[in-house]
Recover the amino acids of this structure.
């Protein structure tokens, strides 16, 4: 440090810089700090630079950083850090006490309030991103279903759209709840919850099962959800008379599947198309 500039002089100038920072005059504060740095030694220059950076932070972060600098500095350095403490953070002449211990309020347990950076963090495991192969398969399946016309359903939908302007709303039809789960692979009607929760789901409703209709060839136990979805796709492909019928039935299933099952159908369709 320049012998003509004492620590008390620098501390006084730092107090002025702190007041400028607190009032928002950062440009003037930097200018005066530059003149201080030219008169200080290397160690003091580093400490002054760290103090100025701390003063430009949020009040909660500012006090915590100044407290850390105060704890890690010598007697002369502590005097400089105390001079940097803004007036709003002081309680009378207790700048040293304010830097020596946290000023946060204590709760019922008597523990001092901790800064946000000291609070425990809860880490969430990152979700795996879909592979490029799965994304390509999904795109191929989308084109597969979009490029083909479902013979009966699409014509009925278009005919219904044309009649919406002249036909009154059918409240009975509108009150019908949506289909729950996948339909029966034979009659395409809704299956009861008991049929869908069977340990070996054959894809049939109770009536078709009692009549001896052919259902899905259930994979050997233990079978995964993916294996069952693929088995359903194979059954639909094997029991469809035409390509249009197969696509229509797969499209009907697609509307009732979640994202995971749709990815399985997409991969199966891409292998069939290849």
């Amino acid at each position: 440090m320049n012998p003509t500039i004492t620590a008390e002089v620098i501390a006084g100038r730092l107090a002025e810089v702190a007041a400028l920072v607190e009032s928002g005059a950062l440009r003037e504060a930097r200018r005066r700090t530059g003149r201080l740095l030219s008169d200080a030694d290397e160690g003091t220059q580093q400490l002054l630079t760290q103090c100025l950076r701390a003063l430009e932070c949020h009040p909660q972060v500012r006090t915590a950083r100044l407290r850390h600098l105060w704890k890690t500095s010598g007697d002369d350095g502590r005097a400089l850090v105390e001079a940097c403490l803004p007036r709003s953070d002081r309680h009378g002449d207790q700048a040293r006490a304010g830097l020596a211990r946290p000023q946060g309020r204590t709760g019922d347990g008597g523990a001092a309030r901790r800064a946000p950076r000291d609070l425990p963090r809860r880490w969430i495991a990152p979700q795996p991103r879909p592979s490029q192969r799965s994304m390509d398969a999904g795109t191929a399946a989308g084109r597969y279903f979009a490029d083909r016309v479902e013979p009966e359903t699409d014509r009925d939908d278009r005919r219904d759209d044309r009649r919406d302007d002249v036909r009154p709303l059918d409240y009975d039809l509108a009150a019908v709840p949506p289909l729950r789960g996948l339909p029966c692979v034979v009659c395409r009607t809704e299956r009861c919850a008991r049929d869908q929760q069977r340990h070996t789901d054959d894809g049939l409703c109770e009536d078709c099962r009692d009549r001896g209709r052919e259902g899905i060839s259930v994979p050997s136990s233990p079978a995964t959800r993916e294996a069952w979805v693929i088995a359903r796709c194979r059954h639909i492909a094997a029991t469809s008379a035409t390509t249009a019928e197969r696509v229509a039935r797969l499209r009907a299933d697609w509307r009732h599947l979640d994202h995971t099952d749709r990815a399985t159908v997409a991969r199966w369709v891409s292998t069939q198309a290849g």
Notes: DSSP finds 14 helices and no strands in the chain.
